[in-house]
Amino acid sequence: MALFVIAAVAVRIRGDAWADFSQFGLAEEFPQFGLIATWIFHTLTFGLGEEAGWRGYALPRLQKGRSALSATLILSVLWALWHLPMFWYRPGYANMNIGGIIGWLFSIVTGAVLLTWLYNSSKGSVLVVILFHGSVDVAFTTRVAQGDIVNIMGMLIMVWAIIVVIVTGPANLSRSGKHTLQS
Predict the structure, then answer these.
(1) Average pLDDT over residues 42-66
(2) Rounded to whole angstroms, what are the CA distances from 180 to 36, 109, 154?
(3) Would you list the DSSP string of 39-74?
(4) Which residues, including other chains, have CB under 8 Å from residue 27's CB and lie 6 or more apart?
(5) Please, what is the angle between helix 98-121 and helix 126-141, to 10°?
């Protein structure tokens, strides 16, 4: 929600109309859902469905013997391949040009950096990354987050991830160390 608010304020400062905040959480995919139902759906399907495997299973194994950033980059390739089928059935993906695809790939990497940071900073809490993933999906898929708002939110995620790498360093992507598979 904070990303959405910052992006909406930036668009308003530029001179556009205020976003209709009452529409936040309403998605074209599920017009019958309100904000809470949309968030629960995204958290249980995409958040839990993906993060149990990506951060809960794969990341701690990949971080063993590698820097957190290297493990995240490997995981990003797998995560991008996982999302590849969406380019055949989701309009937002199917209509991307090459610039959009490059931006999307960069967003996969920077999103993965943030998820690794959250995972490592929470000492391996999969719940934290599940909740974050579900919440970000709601912000990005809400019908009111169109055009510049969604682009600014994406930019904010990317800047946030770059700051995380600079501040925490690539070795752990966390000030409290990295969480690896215990042998």
Answers:
(1) 95
(2) 33, 20, 29
(3) HHHHIIIIIHHHHHHIIIIIHHHHHTTS-HHHHHHH
(4) 33, 38, 138, 141, 142, 143
(5) 150
Does residue 95 register a pLDDT over 80? Answer: yes
Token pair for residue 47? 């958040």
Whole-prediction pTM: 0.91
In contact, 4 and 145? CB cutoff 8 Å: yes
- Give the SS3 label for residue 120: helix
Of 46, 17, 6, the residue nearest 38 (C-alpha)? 46
The share of the chain scoring above pLDDT 90, in percent, equals 66
Among 124, 117, 114, 128, residue whose Cα is nearest residue 179: 124
Angle at 153 between CA 147 and CA 157, to 5 degrees: 145
Q: Cβ distance 118 to 161 under 8 Å? A: no
Helix/strand/coil for 39: helix
DSSP helix/strand/coil, 142? strand
Torsion over CA: 87, 88, 94, 99 (sign): positive
Record the tokens describing residue 39, joined without a space. 């968030």
Residue 66: predicted pLDDT: 95
